[in-house]
């Protein structure tokens, strides 16, 4: 749903009538099924990671995207070569849709020296900056100014037609870094999409202790963004809205703010039992499990039958198990043999003209 539209110049900001997205019927079945596959991969992979964590085989935290798979998958699906993705902790589906190899994930969690972080950096902080997947920064809000800087650098180099998309939790949106980043992106008119997933909790802090506006999308107009809201449990709505936002940013319209509503269907991390979530919240519409909802839709509309779905699950589980068993046999880094320079700076030191 498009909530507020701002013109390209800051002074021409105007509010348009909200247009409600009415249909949940997928227009493009292939796209719907592709998104579902990323969602399912995320769910199955994360269940495996949680089980490895419980077995004491993962050092550091495990943070699941359970409940956020539909909006996250959509975030990765409309980005093209040359676009930049800045994912956060609950974005396994989006990372996979953007092109992150499964083995990268497992190698990082299991500390393999062959992983993208060479076994040195934990779990969710992985990335491949040279392939435009920014390494995740934990400090809430800090991904936005980093993304803005990256987009400005691309523009200064004369690149054209690119978009940057970064994600944020509703808690992260309340930090100073978020405000500064959101503001400067609009001042500089960089081609940016910010997807905020309001999962109702920032660790154990509920929405009413996080912000006092009616809906976070109301801030779009104040920042000079175009704003959109989505039911983050409805895959088709997520695909439509994120696609529109990416297209608009690419077409040179102001930065785009998308606010999706879901419930975090796990603890903050696997160390947290989330016992502070009141039971009545779990029966709210936004608390639906997007994977189950999408699966039901696929079956009811005959996009796949139960047998084909079962095969998809089995195939993904097999790929996850193979990746885990490969990474488990790989070495951790050896301190004395390591090149301790940073991942991004090494090529610049070796080849200063690069
Ligand atoms: C500036 C800062 N403060 C605190 C933290 C610790 N912290 C990490 S995640 C988190 C909760 C984040 O909530 P939200 O942004 O809503 O995202 P969610 O975890 O719900 O997806 C907190 C408090 C941090 N990483 N950075």
Estimated share of beta-strand residues: 5-15%
C-alpha geometry = globular
What do we call the CATH homologous superfamily?
Answer: Thiamin diphosphate (ThDP)-binding fold, Pyr/PP domains
Terminal residue distance: 43 Å
Rg measurement, Å: 20 Å
Q: Give me the CATH fold name.
A: Rossmann fold
User: What is the count of distinct domains?
Assistant: 1
Main sheet characteristics: 6 strands, mixed
Low-confidence stretches: 1-23
Distinct compounds present: thiamine diphosphate
What number is the mean pLDDT?
A: 91
- Percent helix range: 25-40%
Decide which structural class fits the backbone: alpha/beta
Tell me what the CATH architecture is.
3-Layer(aba) Sandwich
What's the short version?
With 354 residues, the protein is of the alpha/beta class.
Question: What does it look like?
Answer:
Helices cover 39% and strands 10% of the residues. Mean pLDDT is 91; it is low at 1-23. It has a single domain, classed as Rossmann fold (3-Layer(aba) Sandwich), CATH 3.40.50.970. The protein is globular and about 55 Å long. The chain contains eleven helices and eight strands. With 354 residues, the chain is an alpha/beta fold. It has helices at residues 29-54, 69-77, 92-98, 102-109, 143-156, 176-188, 219-223, 235-250, 290-300, 306-328, 345-350; strands at 2-4, 84-86, 164-169, 192-198, 201-202, 205-206, 226-231, 256-261. β5 and β6 (205-206) form a beta hairpin. The strands form two sheets. The chain has a six-stranded mixed β-sheet, with helices on both faces. It has a two-stranded antiparallel ribbon with strand order 5-6. The protein binds thiamine diphosphate (TPP). Thiamine diphosphate (TPP) is lined by residues 89-90, 138-140, 169-172, 175, 199, 201-203, 264, 268. Thiamine diphosphate binds at residues 89-90, 138-140, 169-172, 175, 199, 201-203, 264, 268.
């Amino acid at each position: 749903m498009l909530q507020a539209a701002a013109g390209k110049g800051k002074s021409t900001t105007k509010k348009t009538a909200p247009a409600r997205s009415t249909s949940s019927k997928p227009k493009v079945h292939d796209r719907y099924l592709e998104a579902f596959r990323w969602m399912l991969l995320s769910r199955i992979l994360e269940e495996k990671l949680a089980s490895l964590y419980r077995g004491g085989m993962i050092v550091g935290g495990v943070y699941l995207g359970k409940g956020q798979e539909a909006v996250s998958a959509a975030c990765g699906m409309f980005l093209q070569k040359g676009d930049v993705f800045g994912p956060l902790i609950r974005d396994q589906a989006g990372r996979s849709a953007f092109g992150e190899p499964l083995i990268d994930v497992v190698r990082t969690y299991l500390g393999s020296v062959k992983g993208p972080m060479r076994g040195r950096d934990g779990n969710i902080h992985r990335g491949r900056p040279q392939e435009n997947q920014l390494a995740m920064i934990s400090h809430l809000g800090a991904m936005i100014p980093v993304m803005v800087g990256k987009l400005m650098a691309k523009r200064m180099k004369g690149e054209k037609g690119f978009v940057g998309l970064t994600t944020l939790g509703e808690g992260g949106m309340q930090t100073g870094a978020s405000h500064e980043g959101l503001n400067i992106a609009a001042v500089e008119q960089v081609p940016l999409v910010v997807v905020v997933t309001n999962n109702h909790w920032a660790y154990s802090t509920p929405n009413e202790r996080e912000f006092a506006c009616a809906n976070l999308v109301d801030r779009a107009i104040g920042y000079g963004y175009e704003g959109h809201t989505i039911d983050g449990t409805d895959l088709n709505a997520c695909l439509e809205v994120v696609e529109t936002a990416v297209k608009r940013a690419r077409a040179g319209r102001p930065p785009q703010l998308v606010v999706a509503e879901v419930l975090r269907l796990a603890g903050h991390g696997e160390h947290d039992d989330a016992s502070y979530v009141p039971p009545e919240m779990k029966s709210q519409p936004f608390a639906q499990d997007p994977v189950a909802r999408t699966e039901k839709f696929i079956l009811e509309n005959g996009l796949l039958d139960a047998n084909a779905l079962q095969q998809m699950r089995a195939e993904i589980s097999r790929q996850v198990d193979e990746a885990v068993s490969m990474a488990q046999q790989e070495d951790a880094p050896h301190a004395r043999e390591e090149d301790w320079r940073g991942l991004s700076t090494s090529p610049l030191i070796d080849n200063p003209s690069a």
